[in-house]
Amino acid sequence: MRRPRVLVVGAGLAGTATAIRLLRFARRPLEVVLLERRHDYRYAGVAYHRDGNPWDHVFNIQAGRMSAFREAVNDFVSWANHEADRTGWPAPWTDFTFVEHGPAPRRIYHDYLGDRIMQARLEAYPDVTLVEAEGEAVDLDVRADHVDASIRQPSGEITTLAADHVILATGLELKQPAFAAGVLGHDAFIRHPYSTDGVRRLEATPADATVLIVGTVLSAYDSVALLLRQGHTGTVYLVSKSGATPRTYPDDHEHGVVDLPAPATLFAPYRDRPEFLARLRAEWDAARAAVTREHPDMDQRIVTERVAKAWEPYLPRAIEQIPTDELRALLNEFSTQVATLRVGAVPYTTAIVERAMSADHGSVEVVVGRIERVRPAGSGRLDVVVGSRVIQADLVVCNFGRETDYTVVNSPLWTNLVANRLVTPHRRTGRGIEIDRHGTPLRPDGEPVEMLSAIGVMREGDEIIRNGRTGAFAFNLAAIKNHSIVVAAHVIDRLEPPGSARQAAAEHQRSFTTHSAFEQAVSMEVKRLATPSRAERQRLDARLGSHLRSTHRCQAVPADGRCALMVAAVNQAAVQRLTDVSVTPRQLRRQLGIQDAEGT
């Protein structure tokens, strides 16, 4: 029998994380093809590739929150301290001891993900293999029983790869800044600050140059911090419509979840924007006061993060009341402010910028306003028109973000997917595409394209509507951890006999003689999904098989027919528990009984 093949399009964080889960979850023969168009983006993507991230670019959140696995809280810190090859690392990182609350350079995440996928490859079941391929997927032809992927090779040749399932993990789509259309090729304009060329030009900027950075949040802070660490003394302007800047996490910050009552007035019918915003501010102020009152030892800098997290379960109901046009307008107007309320940054990044913003060291100025136009100013400089103000700069750095509207994305693959009605731009938010709860894209008529899955940024609109996750939390590492589990489990369910068992699986929970028997089975399956060790997975498989044979007379795991459906029911419940976002990863480990592996 032919071995099924899964094509993962994109080998950045989302694609690599999903490939790891596929290699771990598969019990039967499977070929995972991990396709990447740029060699330097493999295991890294834009966010973590080495050439775009100097050593002083650190994660905005603490190192202890950077594990690729929710069930293995300390995995990244442990790897950085005990497994990472530090050959070529500069001071201070070469002798640095990484701690849960401290910083870590973004560029080493490339090595971390590379090591973890190699581990998954070695620990996969027999005949479960990983193929790493180069090229750009430019089109998909969904047939009756497979998908033909058209792939542009590095040579320019177009080849076809047949796959039983395709996972779209293409990452951020670039947004073109209309205000700078006439200067994109200008020597004083950096369009891609995380590119090799962008970093090189920032590092070569004269110390006394006047620099204007488009944006005031984390990506802008990366650029200005890079300049300041190399002794920049000239004025740096940070410009955005909101003027919102990131909060600094306390030195001992730890992610947490608090309980708050539902913001009930937000469920009332929507009248108009001023009235809704007034209700929102009143509920927000009351929630902040409640957290401060009930948690008097909590640092005030993280109260907004706690409130935003606590509100996530309630936001889908509140969003239902908002008309589509108004919802889109609110998201466009307040997305930056929401991002700064939901996530902060470590002092390593913010302290140097905040010091330069102070009255004593005022070389950095935040300018609030809309950039109307960037135009040549003579002598190699650029004029930036911000409202009625014109700022002349020696260098303009454009942190102008991503394209959220998939009707206008500028890539052959997504253009063809939309044109061929294989995906539908998200109707309510205009951000990303329509998917079902398993990450399956939906056609315009609502029909799922069963041989496709989506993971990462293109799920932003669905995350907002379905889960209340706003800002970057709709597609950041925390979201991708869960996406990778759900998508990988769903794909395995489709491809392993008897196939597509998940729809009937829930019915077979009742096949268990007792609730306790079902819970025991789910506990075993949770631990199987969570372990990187093949030997341990095989041991847990054997235990689950013995459990089912003793209570339900099943002959093997997995098996055809009724027993396979029972295994699918157990797997479905295990996936739901492993992706529970109502608790922190550390709390999750405790409630799932998998804390002993890390001693936490």
TrEMBL record:
Domain of life: Bacteria
Domain FAD-dependent urate hydroxylase HpyO/Asp monooxygenase CreE-like FAD/NAD(P)-binding: 8-171
One Pfam family matching this protein: NAD_binding_9
PANTHER family noted in UniProt: BLR0577 PROTEIN
Name of the protein: FAD-dependent urate hydroxylase HpyO/Asp monooxygenase CreE-like FAD/NAD(P)-binding domain-containing protein
Source organism (scientific name): Asanoa siamensis
Source species taxonomy: Bacteria, Bacillati, Actinomycetota, Actinomycetes, Micromonosporales
